[in-house]
Amino acid sequence: MEPTDNLNIESVTPLISPLELKSKYPITDASHRTVVQSRHMIRDIIRHQSSRFLVVVGPCSIYNPEAAIDYANRLQSMIPLCPHLMIVMRAYFEKPRTTVGWKGYIHDPHLTGDTDIETGLTLARSLLLTITSMGLPVASELLDPIVPQYLADLLSWASIGARTTESQTHREMASGLSMPVGFKNSTEGNVDVAINALLAAQQPHGFLGINQQGETAIIRTKGNPDGHIILRGGRLPNYDPTTIQGVATKMESAGFLPSIMVDCSHGNSNKQYQNQVKVAHAILEQLPQFRSTIMGVMIESNLDEGNQSIPADLTQLKYGVSITDSCIGWDTTAQLLRDINQAVSNRLFGNHDVT
Question: pTM of the full predicted structure?
Fold first, then answer.
């Protein structure tokens, strides 16, 4: 009889269960404290109950843990210098691809094109433990709906990307996440899909997933009340005051407090990484007008600026330079964080104490 199943499957490899991985790399007291405290602080920002300004900043994607820890140490040193900011490091391990390309550290930690997800999950969890144990909260884009079972307990904030905001699977996944979630507008610039995602993620859902033992299971969620919008541009930038006011009005009409983050990269920078500084400063000029509406920015930053292709000879990789989207370098980042902190203090809060 001619087979009808798995005709295009080359192999099926069992994967370590979330419980097994967490047993090998358990959350520490220091990491737990970082995650719990920072989640509360981010929720307060989204709910307009804190005067801090959320800044999600860091590499476009993680591929070298040594460089990531180097970056994390530098970023952590900025926290006491920027008391009006809630600084969260980007630790992005999955990369959505328009066609093909490197899928991220979880899928291909060796940069060889070979899928080694178990090693990727192990290295990613180890790195998250190292960073959060320093007292630095982390953020990540969640792409594969199975991955949160392995890593989500160490994340303080998550994003649903422009390519997946309209996906029912990702809206359902977000409804069960334990941390605040930002939904990006579509790659073309449609914001309505992100508002619809907020509405969907706020509701309870039931869907197929895995449990901590790695068994296929029905996941039933309560709904996630802590969502917000991320404006990342599209065919045109969308961080201008008219657009932000329009999005705020739509959010209010849908029953949400208008809480908007602006992604300074992607469509808003016209994919020119140097423009992120210009976008950020344009947002700072709008803070008096949008006192609580603009609750944060996202910045793609690395140890050194620009980006590079993955070379055939991996020894030729430049340390601290992105292998995906171009990033601003550390010196520019440090100055920009100081500028944001000063602007938030002077233009929005005056001499009031941070709450």
Answer: 0.96
